[in-house]
Amino acid sequence: MPKRQLPPADARITPRLWRLGEFELDESRPALRRGEVRVALEPKPFKLLLVLIRHAGQVVTHQQLLDQLWEGRAVSDAVISRCASKLRSALGQQQDWVRTVHGQGYRYDGPVTPPDDGSPLPPLRSTAAPDAPVTPEPPAVTAASDAGVPEPLPQPQTPPRSQPAPLTASGPVAPRRRKAWALSTALVLALCVALGLLLKAHRVQNQAETALAEAETINRFMDNALLPGANPLASDDSGEPAMATLLDAAAEKLRHAAYPPAVAARLTASLGGGYDRLALFQPATALLDSGLKAAEATLGSTAVETNLLRMRLAATLTRQGSLDRALLLYQRAVRELPSASGGQTTTARESLFAARVELGRLQWLRGQFADCATQLDASLAAVPPGMDALRIADTQWSLARCLTSLQQYERAGTLLDEARAAASDWPGTPPALLSRIDLGRCDLWGATGRWAEVRQLAIAIGQQPRGSLSAQYLVSLDAQDQQALALLRLGQVSSARTLLEGLYRQRLDQRGDGDRASLLTVERLGEALLRDGAAAQAMALLAPAYTRSRQALGGAHPLTLGLGNTLAEALAAGGDLPAATTLSDTVIDTASTALPSGHPALARALMTQGVLRLLVGDTEAARSAADAADKALQQSQAATSPLRAATRAAVESGDFSLRWRL
């Protein structure tokens, strides 16, 4: 059956503006804008949109798209689907303008206003009946192609010519002619071998591109459809399949299926991420560990897919508190990825960027704030070409959080402003990213004592719609943490305690008791219990959490120091002053070495030491400790915060209350 033929795209492109609802497409640049904001769109999806709007309301077949976008090169339908998916993502809420006509191709169903330059639209020419569906002819299958052997390249047709006279050994020129023919034959053979290798590499590249597109389709389904909508707590007799059951079945199938190595690696990473989000760390680690070993053996240590598995395993280990091994995995990914495909492919460059960012985030978790800032600054200084604005905004948020920990509040605020503006202008921005940026603002405001504003913003973040396993759900838990902290600082202790008790139960269900977020909630709940007169409950909660934090994060981490400081206060409130004093001195010795001199955690520890000295009757030592806390805060940009004001008041009045917290 004859195929529809589209005129070559380049021949039809003239400088014209198309209006698609709120979008404007400029052929001459090329560029797609939404209002005054340029929408990032790769060349292939842009060209796909251009072809579709030129024939809006008509089905453009797969073969026609191959001719237009890939110049007839043999690629699979999965590659076209990947291109269409990127186009839909760029269109955001209007992604249903691009319709899939199953078994045929794609159709543009959105609003379109052609340019008014008078040039006609090129028709879709076809010799098929108007109402008959056009099906591309299947390629002929030869014995060579069926066996997977590359077919020979077609030879150019040349006019017949007279045959040269046979060469003979007689005459003085015969040896030179034989030598020339030998060299020519060798050259032709070398060219044939080179062409054969090129054809094989081209076919392998197409197969890899197709396989990765299929794997990414499954990954997107896992992340965007299956995981957010599933009920992780469904019982076996509820009639609803529990998420863990689905993951177990998929993992079992993956173990016995003969997927190409690159596909298997991507699917393993996706399934491991699913287990991780359910806090099923043991099966996640086992699956990712075995997948990483298989990828190293089949794909090599420098392959992009191998390093994606490394990073996924490192993320799971981070959630479990195994930060040392996670650090080694991220560091190796940063070393290996520059060698992946020579570090020149888009995937390799973007994966290296992601590895550097995740390494910086891990350094923040470990309390290595200066190293974190250096790593993230370097990442933002070397953003790969074509990197979308959301990835950059997410990195700016991470750097702002690190700078807040370093008391570099002005630059942190600037980065948060830039990240929020970029994410807000991007169509289809995930709500969770906007909420994370707002949580960074809560951290910044809290560091400067703006607790009423922290509470209002945290409440607004928590009211965003969310699914049971969506990223927004996890962000909403962090927002509750911020809201509870604001209530504590505003003196509404009972309300903070109630909120934190409910939050702690959710943290245990989602992440277990060794996760950093769970430990942070414990620190704040312990403070609320202590200030609400429940010292015994506070000690029972804080003591094991302090031990877990020392094991997972290390004794010098600010969270560990905060837990130790609160536990010292609880011990004192329970009457064990010797143990409280010993623990407080340990915290201060460590904090003085590990933290910047103006860090609020160090100031709080010094104030606790002052309280303990006062309780044993050493007024001068108490005043000296409080004065040291005041001087520490003077060295930071938090010198005008309520933290310093309360410290100064304690120094001047000598009124230290164990229930009073900074």
Q: What is Rg?
A: 32 Å
Major sheet: size, sense and barrel closure?
A: 4 strands, antiparallel
Count the beta strands.
7
CATH architectural category of the domain at 9-130: Orthogonal Bundle
For CATH, the homologous superfamily of the domain at 9-130 is named as Winged helix-like DNA-binding domain superfamily/Winged helix DNA-binding domain
Q: Compute the number of helices.
A: 26
State the CATH topology of the domain at 9-130.
Arc Repressor Mutant, subunit A
Strand content: under 5%
Structural class: mainly alpha
Tell me the strand order in the biggest sheet: 1-2-3-4
- Give the integer mean of the pLDDT values: 74
State the name of the first-level CATH class of the domain at 9-130.
Mainly Alpha
Helical residue percent band: 55-70%
Low-confidence stretches: 1-14, 125-195, 198-204, 224-241, 637-641, 658-662
Descriptive account of the structure:
This protein has 662 residues and is mainly alpha-helical. The chain has a domain of 122 residues: Arc Repressor Mutant, subunit A, CATH 1.10.10. The protein is built from 26 helices and seven strands. The strands form two sheets. Strands 1-2-3-4 form a four-stranded antiparallel beta sheet, with no helix packed on it. A three-stranded antiparallel beta sheet has the order 5-7-6. Helix 9 runs antiparallel to helix 10 and helix 16 runs parallel beside helix 18. The longest helix has 56 residues. The radius of gyration is 32 Å and the shape is elongated. The termini are far apart. The N terminus and C terminus are likely disordered.
